[in-house]
Amino acid sequence: MAVAIAAEPYAFALDEASVALVVIDMQRDFVEPGGFGASLGNDVSRLEAIVPTVARLLALARRRGWRVIHTRESHRPDLSDCPPAKRSRGNATLRIGDEGPMGRILVQGEPGNAILAAVAPIAGETVIDKPGKGMFYATDIADILAKWGTTQLVFAGVTTEVCVQTSMREANDRGFECLLVEDATQSYFEEFKQAALAMIRAQGAIVGWTAPLSALEKALES
Ligand code: TIU
Q1: Residue ranges around ligand 1 (CB below 6 Å)
Q2: How many other C-beta atoms are found inside a 10 Å radius of the C-beta of residue 80?
Q3: What is the mean pLDDT of residues 159-183?
Q4: Whole-model pTM?
C-alpha cells in the first residue's frame, strides 16, 4: 500500500514493498581533505554537514526493511576503466590514480575510497562500484533492481548536481520513480544544489520528486 509523502512538486506515493534507498558516493574521497573532491579545488567542508542526516535516513530505511544500495565512484587499480578524458580533465592537483594522503585518488580499496564510517554499509546491503558519475553506466545495478522488483528509488548522497542528479536521470529514463531527500544531499556549490533540486522537480516532476527527511519520517512513522 502506498504512503503519501509530502514532496515537491506533489505528493510521492511511496510503496515500501517496491522501494530501495540509494546512497550515492558518501566516500572520504569527496568529503575529507586530501581526496578527489579537494584535488579539484573544492571546499569539501560543506559536505560533512549532511552526514548525520544521511545516517538518520539510513536508520529509517533499515527500520522499515527497505533494500539499501551504496555506491562508490571508483576505478580499478590499473585504471583500465578510467577514460583518459576523465583522468586528464581540468587542473587537478592530484589526478585519479595518483598517490594522495588517503592513498591513490579514486581507486578501489584505497583508504580514501571508503564510505564514511558514520554511513557505512551493514551486512545485507549492496555496494556498487561505478566508474562514471551515473550508477547505471558500466555496473550491474539494473539487473539487481530487476531481480528485486524495485520500481521506486529514494536518493541521498553527494554531489547533488553531479553523481546524484546523473544517477536520478539514468533511473528516471529506465522507468523508476525517484525521490531525492533534500537535506541528505549536498554540493560543493549551494547554488548548484538549489538549481538541481529545482530542475529535478520542475515541469511536474520531469526527473523526480524532492522532500525533506522529516516528511518521510512523519508519513512513515508518526
Ligand atoms: N566533482 C563532483 O562534484 N562530484 C564528483 O566528481 N562525483 C560525485 O558527485 N560523486
Answers
A1: 25, 30, 37, 40, 73, 133, 158-159, 162-163, 188
A2: 8
A3: 98
A4: 0.98
